Structures are given as C-alpha cells and as structure tokens.
C-alpha cells in the first residue's frame, strides 16, 4: 500500500497526517508550542522548537499508522505564512523567528511606502505592506540588529526551515514567496528592483519552485531521528492558506474558502493577477499553475474566542461554549464585538485598532459575550467578502474550515451573516491533506492537483442554509459594526499610544 504524509506547521502547533492514495486518513499527530512575546507587540518562535515538535509528530503518526516507513511515498508541507527565519552559512538559526502576528514594524512599513509609494508597491507585489510580513521584518533587523543582519546567509519562511532540516536543501515555493512582499507576483520571480530599492541583499533569497516540485530527499540523519525512510521524496509544499484550500478541494475560480483558525481568512481562486487598489486585501500565487488567489485576512478570529475563554471564562470546554452561544438570540441582544485584539488587516490595515465590546448592559451574560465574539469574527470575514465581490470576482461556492467549521452554531452564524449556503468537506486537517496532495502530485501518484482533489475530496451533502429573518437582522448589525470602527479609530490610536 502507498501512503502520503502532510505536515502543517501552524502558529500554535504542528500537525502531521498520513493518508492513503484515496485520501483516507490513516493517522494523525499534533504537538503544541507557544508564542514568545519579549516586548509588547512582538511575536517570535524558536525554529528549533518547531523541528523538535515536527519530529515528535512524525514518529507518533508513523507509530499510529502501523505501516512500514518505505510505504510513505512522499512528504509535503503547509506552513504559517509571512514569517522570517534567519540562517547563517552553516545553516544554523541566528535568532528566534519573527512570525506573522508581530506588530513591531509599522515604522518600516511607513518608510517603505514613503520611499517607493503605495502605487509602486501595489503594482509590483499586488499587496499592501503590513506588519508581520517578512520584508518589513527583515528591514527591522537591518536597522535594529545590524550584527544579526551581517550574519545572514539566507532568509527562509517557516515551513522552509523544517524542510531544510529534513532534506538539507534550501528553497521556497511561489505561494509562500509571494507572501513575503519581496516578490513580483505577476511574473513569479523575486523582485530584484524592489529588494534593491529597499536596500536589502538579493543573495538572501532562495530559489523559488512550485509547491509540488521535489525539493530533496529525507536524509540519513532525519531518517534516524523521525523513523521516515531514507531517500523518501520531499516536495516544497506551500503557504497554509493555499494548502488548506487544496485540502478543501478549492482549485477553480469561484470557489471560496472561509477559515476561522487563529486568524481568519477569506480565500478565493482567481484566473488572473488582480488586486484591490485600495490595498485592503492580499493577492498571492496559488498552488494550481496559472492561477492566483485573492485573500482578506483578520488577525484574531479563533484567537478572539481563545482569549475570551482563557482570560474571562477560565478555560471552559468548547462544547459548553457552543451550547451557551446557542442559548442567545442572533444579534446577542445588541452586543457588538470588534475582534481587533492584535490590530487588524482587512479592511483597515491598522495595527493600532483595538478589540471592543459595544452595547453592554446589565442583562448581558457570558453567553452573550461568547455569541458576540463569534458574530464579530464573522462580520470581519464579511468585510473581506464584500471587498472581493466588488472586484468582479466570481464567488459561487463557500466552504468553511478551521475551528469555525467544527462548531455548528458558528457555521450557522456564517451562513446568516454572509447570506450564503456554507459547505464543508468530510476530511479533517485540510492543510495537512493539501500538503499530502502536493507530495502525491510530486511523486506522480496523481496527474494534477485538480484530479487529485476530484478523487479524494468529498463535500458535505447538505450545506448550512441562511435563515432569512436572521439575515435581515445581521445586515443591520453589520452596518453598525462598520460604523463602530470609523467612530472609534481616533480613540483606538490614542489608547494604543498610551499602552
């Protein structure tokens, strides 16, 4: 029997799954790690901890699957996007990785815009600059840690470091490279012009490949450490959003992914490299050749509910949280939540935005807080949906994934607020499955990504359908939601200055 392995390096954990060629889950394993916050607004992680956790999950997945290691025919990767891993000439990590949720680089973002202009940056990268992305993070290192900058040999994205540890080979893929904001997204190459204009070193950037291209093979050292078979092919893999989309069968224009994980994303496949000229969304290269994706991103989606649970509710079981949310009427009796706990990207691109409950009265309980958070997160997704629709982008089929797809009440809230039928797929761990599909295409187990998805991805027979009376109420609430940010923006910035 032949199997494929998919590894998803997330923000809070790494997951490894083993599937057979028909897409059936053979085993899975997960290991958790923390985010380090050495200063306010910083977000860092230790890449060596990533690797230790990856080794742990590979061994556990192989043990659970009870298969021979040589039956794993290929390994693929999915990874948290935008982050920065710095390595020296000995391929050793120089400092902790700066990850996507880091907020320290607003000054660098502003300086790049001042130097190059927003129009130039938009036309080249098809994206706005934002804190947490690799390019302003690298510029911050050059300006604030010059001794570190001098030691740099290569700059990697998170999952590319894990693949380096597994194969000894350097490189990245188009989906992750386009999310660094040092990439010519239309032409699928590093932007030498932009890199030079900012004053960064072009030699830092590795070769760029397709997600399904074979990057190398499992080394003897890795085989001993993990239990994988020496010489097993390893593909480049891709950014988590692109891999999750593949794992949801989203490979054609008009298919839309709604993800509520740590962050929240609306991801739509597009057939040409268009972008929002108001710079509120992101356009990246897609896993399927000849396509791109346009994405709106919210920084604190599932993170908002986790915050509420940990800081206010004393770590209630999530099934109890769902039941409490169901006990409250849609609209949370006039309670509104803005999920801007770490600033916000789409549509505001505002690192100083702040999380807010509005409309609290004495009869509001913890159940109201829970439901308001769930609703606020979906209002944030609706911001992205509305912008993407305004770009004449085809949006036909909506597919939910992440924690939001595992909660029946959150699924219903998505259907009602977006006024869309919402599907989900039968497979779990879609990012891992997408990574495994890349491995399968790379070792020619499937002729193409599209044919692989047709063979193994199964959609739910019945979608979650919006309730018309709730749709009308949520339309009114959404207008209040948008108004709330506009009315409080100046206050948010004042509070940010104080904190």
**Average predicted confidence as pLDDT:** 95
Largest sheet: 6 strands, mixed
Shape: globular
Q: What is the beta-strand fraction?
A: 15-25%
Strand order of the biggest β-sheet: 18-19-17-16-22-23
Tell me the total number of β-strands.
Answer: 23
- Radius of gyration in whole Å, from Cα? 22 Å
Helix content estimate: 25-40%
Structural class: alpha/beta
Pick out the low-confidence regions: none
The CA-CA distance between the termini, in Å, is 58 Å
Total of helices:
17
What distinguishing features does this structure have?
six-stranded mixed β-sheet, five-stranded mixed β-sheet, 23 strands, 499 residues, alpha/beta, 17 helices
What can be said about this structure in brief?
The chain is 40% helix and 20% strand.
Note down, in words, how this protein is organized.
With 499 residues, the protein is an alpha/beta fold. Helices cover 40% and strands 20% of the residues. The protein has helices at residues 47-65, 106-116, 118-125, 134-144, 146-151, 158-167, 174-177, 192-198, 220-226, 240-247, 302-311, 318-326, 366-390, 408-418, 430-442, 449-456, 468-498, and strands spanning 3-9, 13-20, 25-32, 44-45, 72-79, 85-87, 97-98, 154-156, 172-173, 183-184, 189-190, 208-209, 214-217, 233-235, 238-239, 254-260, 264-270, 282-285, 292-298, 336-338, 356-358, 395-402, 422-423. Helix 2 packs across helix 4 and helix 13 crosses helix 14 (408-418). The radius of gyration is 22 Å and the shape is globular.
């Amino acid at each position: 029997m032949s199997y494929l392995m998919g590894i998803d390096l997330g923000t809070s954990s790494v997951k490894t799954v083993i599937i057979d060629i028909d897409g059936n889950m053979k085993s899975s394993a997960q290991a958790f790690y923390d985010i380090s916050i050495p200063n306010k607004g910083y977000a860092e992680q230790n890449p060596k901890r990533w690797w230790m956790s990856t080794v742990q999950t590979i061994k556990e997945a192989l043990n659970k699957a009870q298969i021979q290691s040589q039956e794993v025919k290929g390994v693929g990767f999915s990874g948290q996007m935008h982050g920065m891993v710095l390595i020296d000439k000995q391929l050793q990590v120089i400092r902790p990785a700066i990850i996507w949720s880091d907020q320290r680089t607003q000054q660098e973002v502003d300086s790049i815009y001042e130097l190059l202009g927003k129009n130039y940056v938009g036309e080249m990268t098809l994206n706005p600059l934002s804190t947490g992305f690799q390019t302003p993070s690298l510029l911050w290192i050059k300006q604030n840690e010059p001794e570190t900058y001098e030691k740099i040999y290569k700059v990697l994205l998170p999952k590319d470091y894990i693949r380096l540890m597994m194969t000894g080979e350097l490189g990245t893929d188009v989906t992750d490279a386009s999310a660094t904001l040092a990439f010519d997204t239309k032409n699928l190459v590093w932007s030498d012009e932009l890199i030079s204009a900012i004053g960064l070193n072009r030699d830092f950037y590795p070769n760029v490949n397709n997600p399904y291209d074979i990057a190398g093979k499992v080394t003897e050292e890795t085989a001993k450490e993990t239990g994988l078979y020496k010489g097993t092919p390893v593909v480049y893999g891709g950014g988590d959003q692109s891999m999750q989309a593949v794992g949801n069968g989203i490979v054609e224009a008009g298919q839309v992914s709604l993800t509520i994980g740590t962050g929240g994303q609306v991801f739509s496949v597009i057939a040409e490299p268009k972008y929002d000229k108001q710079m509120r969304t992101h356009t990246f290269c897609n896993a399927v050749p000849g396509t791109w994706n346009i994405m709106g991103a919210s920084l604190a989606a599932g993170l908002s509910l986790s915050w509420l649970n940990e800081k206010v509710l004393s770590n209630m079981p999530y099934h109890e949280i769902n039941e409490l949310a169901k006990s409250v009427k849609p609209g949370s009796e006039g309670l509104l939540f803005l999920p801007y706990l770490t600033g916000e990207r789409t549509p505001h691109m505002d690192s100083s935005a702040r999380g807010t409950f509005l409309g609290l009265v004495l009869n509001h309980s913890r159940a109201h807080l829970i439901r308001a958070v769930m609703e606020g997160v979906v209002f944030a997704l609706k911001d992205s949906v509305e912008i993407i629709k305004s770009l004449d982008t085809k949006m036909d089929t909506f597919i939910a994934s992440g924690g939001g797809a595992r909660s029946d009440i959150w699924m219903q809230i998505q259907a009602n607020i977006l006024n869309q039928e919402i599907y989900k797929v039968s497979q779990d761990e879609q990012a891992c499955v997408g990574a495994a599909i890349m491995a399968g295409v790379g070792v020619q187990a499937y002729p193409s990504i599209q044919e692989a998805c047709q063979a193994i991805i199964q959609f739910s027979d019945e979608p979650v359908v919006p309730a018309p009376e709730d749709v009308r109420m949520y339309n009114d609430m959404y207008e209040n939601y948008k108004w709330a940010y506009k009315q409080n923006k100046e206050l948010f910035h004042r509070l940010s200055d104080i904190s």
